Amino acid sequence: MRALIREVCRGKAQKLPVNTQIIRISVFKFNGMTQPIFVLGAAITDIMGFPLGTPTPSDSVPGTIAKASGGVGRNLAENLVRLGIPVELITAFGDDTNGRDLLSQCQELHIGVRHSILANGRRGALHLAVLNENNDLFAGVADLSVMEVLTAAYLEKQMAALQSAAAICLETNVPAATINWVLEQEWDVPLYLDPVSARLALRVADQLGRFHTIKANRRQAEVLSGHRLLHAKDLDTIARKWLDLGVQRVFITLGSQGAFAADHEHQVHLPAAKVKVADTTGAGDAFHAGMLWATLRKWSLEDCCRAGLAASTVAIRSQGAINPELSQSTLLEHIRKFC
Fold this sequence. Notes:
Layout: E1 4-8, E2 37-40, E3 44-51, E4 63-70, H1 72-82, E5 87-90, E6 92-94, H2 97-108, E7 116-120, E8 126-131, E9 137-143, H3 152-156, H4 159-163, E10 167-171, H5 176-184, E11 191-194, H6 198-201, E12 213-217, H7 218-225, H8 232-245, E13 249-253, E14 259-262, E15 267-270, H9 283-296, H10 301-316, H11 328-338
Parallel strand pairs: 2-5, 2-10, 3-8, 6-7, 10-11, 11-12, 12-13
Antiparallel strand pairs: 1-7, 3-4, 8-9, 13-14, 14-15
């Protein structure tokens, strides 16, 4: 049965293949910047289990359970808004308590959702995770079936808005067919890639040359390049491979080893800040936001990498995927102090 889709927009409803209803919201401007960054990705409710001891297969252990807003696309959008950048998030919200909560939170944060979808009869995206005693993932299950309504046909109706963006950020929780449509278009705006995971990275592995900038972690870089990352020289090998395809900038995050960046003229490997780590969840999303913030200000490759590391440093100093203290002032403070 087809889902009833409601477009979350302002103004006249566009024709969609199913019944529609308009939800009116306010549009906000930041720092005089009128061109928003468009983020295409998932908004997910994370349900996390923290065992009090070592989890074991086929057994239940005592612990605590927490719920939080997540999704690479949503996290990136929130970080960008906290840095004063106008954002339009294109995602699919479920028509249940979790989905509506995610939608309301986006609106409260001033994340634009005019081009997103509220899908009747669909559950909101969920990720169920059980962590180990080190707070690393032990096992997890993701239900992103609601993203199926984010089709190429729907995005085609948003083409005029997308062409007006300052940049388009694509993450691979978007359905493969929709990703293919995005990469088939001739854009006048730069495309940024976050591969999300090693498995989902395969959705774009043969089309990397369509992106202006790639931000990947170590494992994603290995999968996308087909090259093991064992030594410093491997960073250059991977970056050169992507740059030769037409990519303009490459950023590879390396956890406690910092981050590597390269373009056609320069490359740099910067160390991670030495701070007490509370939670590494969302560090990559914060790096992406910090790097974009600096890119919009036309900072150098090295300084864009530095801003990314500073933003990720802010993120890891608090529990959860987003540090609510992230702002332009705290970012600049962390650049000066740690990066």
